[in-house]
Amino acid sequence: MALSWRSWLANEGSKHLFLFFWLSLNVWLFCKTFLLYNQGLQYYYLHQMLGLGLCVSRASASVLNLNCCLVLLPMCRVILAFLRGSQKVASKKTRRLLDKSKTFHVTCGVTICIFSVLHVAAHLVNALNFSENYNEEFLALNAANYRGEDPRKLLFATVPGLTGVIMVLVLFLMCTASTFAIRVSNYDIFWYTHNLFFVFYMLLMLHVSGGVLKYQTNLQEHPPGCFNPNKTLRQNLTVPKAFEELFPDYTTEPFPEDLPVPEPFVQNHFMRICSEEPKFQSHFPETWFWISGPLCLYCVERLYRYIRSNKPVTITSVISHPSNVLEVRMMKDDFEARPGQYVILHCPRVSALESHPFTLTMCPTDTKATFGVHVKIVGDWTERFRDLLLLHSNQDTEILPIFQQRRYPKLYVDGPFGSPFEEALNYEVSLCVAGGIGVTPFASVLNTLLDGWKCYKLRRLYFIWVCRDIESFRWFADLLCMLHNKLWQENRPDYINIQLYLSQTDGIQKIIGEKYQALNSRLLIGRPQWKLLFDDIAKCNRRKTIGVFCCGPNKISKILHKLSNSSNSYGTRFEYNKESFS
């Protein structure tokens, strides 16, 4: 049971503990700010006017400031890739936390949505209270112009109100378009609406500049609830008309400020004397302090990425593979990448603004500068991209190198960026599980091992690939055969354990032949028995830590995740990793 706990802590526990810490931090910040505005003397008069609406609006605003500050940091891909690849983060566990950057980004986004609802509800109450509780005594506190003013004017005729309404609409579009259903059915909607974040931040800076809520600045001279002799006499004394005529100066002479008041009187009645009227001042927009740094950092990174990727790559070859897969090989000056990383492709002729991430299947080395990606043709973008690259878009029945002289469209590459699969070579034993086109991140690892494996920590690799049709195995059949033959020649046939699973049996005879004879003996029908597979790997690698890497359907991912957290009797610990584009 102890081993199961350690496995859970290594795989999922760190994420859950961090999320619990993050939730606790947000709740603590909300409560602390709520008490500050509920009990703080500088907000006494404003609290008298607005009640709990003031406390809730300011408390939720503090949480929004924190999350709007940090939601951009997980999207700084260059910084994350630098931290992962540098020696600054030497701990493997710490580097694995970087893989949760997308989870942290989503967590901040959900927190922003939840507390935005609280913030909006509180300000709707505040707008109503500003109208009904118009304070004629302290005019500086009022946001309304007169008692009973229509609260809708405060929402639509003021800068804070109007910008708030527009931000709610922008946030609603971003949140609804981020749902899984919309991202899968129409990725363009998600991509375009998510880029409204820049409009949201600009409106946020204007929103906090209105200075609607004010605090008292002279608490020493005017403690809340103090006794003001001048004001009390002017309001309460009634001077007979005859005295006004005989002593016209009587009504204008102020009450002497230095008039001694018996101290026992003040102490007995718990009252202090005011020396002046209260003075109020708007808060300096604290939101600027919160978001200016991350926003500038993100903008600088985007500018750096734009400069780095503004030169188009040289496409060396395009290969049409079976089952609607397109391989693009290209070259770029000073391009360096590690196995498991991904790049973002942008083709202006396909879409002026849209870009998509693709895992590198071939990385540049000291001997060759070529790198490549495999593109699964699903969706409008990939279909248009294929049609531009291939002479005839229907030539997908066999592997067909395109060597004819032609003018390829301009293609820009942004990256590379880090992913969990960079760690595959840093374990002594790794288990790599791919489903269909999910094999792409492992292809770069296999290509790297083909160039040389002795310089890496990895000493045994279990490679499991599950496909629906036999033709899909031909994407990397040549690579697998070359790696298998190389390891046999070096007397290390046990270095890699290849298992290919075919979930459908139609056309199985097509792979049988001399060319792929090494793979035919490793081709199995059906789906893997995952529990038996894990038990066998644990038995053969007692008391070792095994890296589990998965890129495929969620169903397979959940099974592997659960098995990685379970205990075994061999002292073997599995650390789970899953592909997730930031």
From TrEMBL:
It is an enzyme of class 1 (oxidoreductase). It is a multi-pass membrane protein. It catalyses: NADPH + 2 O2 = 2 superoxide + NADP(+) + H(+); NADPH + O2 + H(+) = H2O2 + NADP(+). Residues 308-423 form the FAD-binding FR-type domain. PROSITE patterns: FAD_FR (PS51384). The chain crosses the membrane at residues 20-39, 59-83, 104-125, 154-177, 189-208. Its main location: other. Its EC number is 1.6.3.1. GO terms for molecular function: NAD(P)H oxidase H2O2-forming activity; superoxide-generating NAD(P)H oxidase activity. GO terms for biological process: defense response; superoxide anion generation. Keywords: Cell junction, Cell membrane, Cytoplasm, Disulfide bond, Endoplasmic reticulum, Glycoprotein, Membrane, NADP, Nucleus, Oxidoreductase, Transmembrane, Transmembrane helix. It comes from the Eukaryota. It is found in: Cell junction, Focal adhesion; Cell membrane; Cytoplasm; Endoplasmic reticulum membrane. InterPro entries: Cyt_b245_heavy_chain, FAD-bd_8, FAD-bd_FR_type, Fe3_Rdtase_TM_dom, Fe_red_NAD-bd_6, FNR_nucleotide-bd, RBOH/FRE, Riboflavin_synthase-like_b-brl. The keyword Cell wall biogenesis/degradation does not apply. GO terms for cellular component: endoplasmic reticulum membrane; focal adhesion; NADPH oxidase complex; nucleus; perinuclear region of cytoplasm. NADPH oxidase that catalyzes predominantly the reduction of oxygen to H2O2. Can also catalyze to a smaller extent, the reduction of oxygen to superoxide. May function as an oxygen sensor regulating the KCNK3/TASK-1 potassium channel and HIF1A activity. May regulate insulin signaling cascade. May play a role in apoptosis, bone resorption and lipolysaccharide-mediated activation of NFKB. May produce superoxide in the nucleus and play a role in regulating gene expression upon cell stimulation. This is NADPH oxidase 4. The lineage of its organism: Eukaryota, Metazoa, Chordata, Craniata, Vertebrata. The gene is Nox4.
